């Protein structure tokens, strides 16, 4: 027995709807970006040129007075040009470098950076940039210790970071870091980590929504439905 026209059209319409729905479903993927620049700042100086992108963080000897220690904060910049979709998770991957502290562990904290990426690594506004690397919303924390020396570490980024990364898609994005548990103790070296120039990566997971079928595709579907209707009338 032939399927009634109404049921035939309804079945075809349902198949079309399922095709459109599946075409617009999101597919998750993970992408990794190497940094485009990195470095560190104290209130008096910076290190972050193409020739020297060392991102040591903590208190280092060689401050403005004899036997004094200067705090350094690190920064990392990435180019998110051409990236779309919805970011669902993020992490910073870096090398732990060499841990050096009288304490068993130290806590590193990542922060929002409002300084323009083009200005990072420059020789002006050192004090302002140094402050900016540690005073914005926190993006995530990681506890470092000597057992991690020279190993690759992942720092999971929180919802605040994901929101800011989402807003920065198609542009450049930077984040800064500092140790929050170091004590400024004359004569005690507490650089804690990052005695390294190794590459740093930003790892993102996103839902990349596929496009809904174009009007031309939908027109072909409609033509098919009309042909079915005409064929049914001839058979009747």
Could you state the order of secondary-structure elements as H and E? Answer: HEEEEEEEHEEHEEEH
Please tell me what the overall shape is: globular
Count of runs of 4 or more consecutive helical residues: 4
What about the largest sheet?
8 strands, antiparallel
* Strands, total number: 12
Supply Rg: 27 Å
Mean pLDDT: 78
Q: Flag low-confidence runs.
A: 17-24
| Beta fraction | 25-35%
**N-C termini distance:** 12 Å
Question: Helix share of residues?
Answer: 25-40%
Structural class: alpha+beta
What is the secondary structure topology, with strand pairs?
Layout: H1 5-23, E1 26-34, E2 37-41, E3 46-47, E4 57-61, E5 69-79, E6 86-95, E7 106-112, H2 126-135, E8 138-144, E9 152-156, H3 159-168, E10 172-179, E11 190-193, E12 201-209, H4 215-235
Antiparallel strand pairs: 1-12, 2-3, 2-5, 4-5, 4-11, 5-10, 6-9, 6-12, 7-8, 7-10
Helix pairs in contact: 1-4
Explain this structure to me?
Strands 2, 3, 4, 5, 7, 8, 10 and 11 form an 8-stranded antiparallel beta sheet that branches. Strands 1-12-6-9 form a 4-stranded antiparallel beta sheet, with helices on one face. A hairpin with a 4-residue loop joins strand 2 and strand 3. The N and C termini lie close together (12 Å). Helix 1 (5-23) runs antiparallel to helix 4 (215-235). It has 236 residues and is of the alpha+beta class. 25% of the residues lie in helices and 35% in strands. Residues 17-24 have low confidence and may be disordered. It contains 4 helices and 12 strands; from the N terminus they run αβββββββαββαβββα. It has helices at residues 5-23, 126-135, 159-168, 215-235; strands spanning 26-34, 37-41, 46-47, 57-61, 69-79, 86-95, 106-112, 138-144, 152-156, 172-179, 190-193, 201-209.
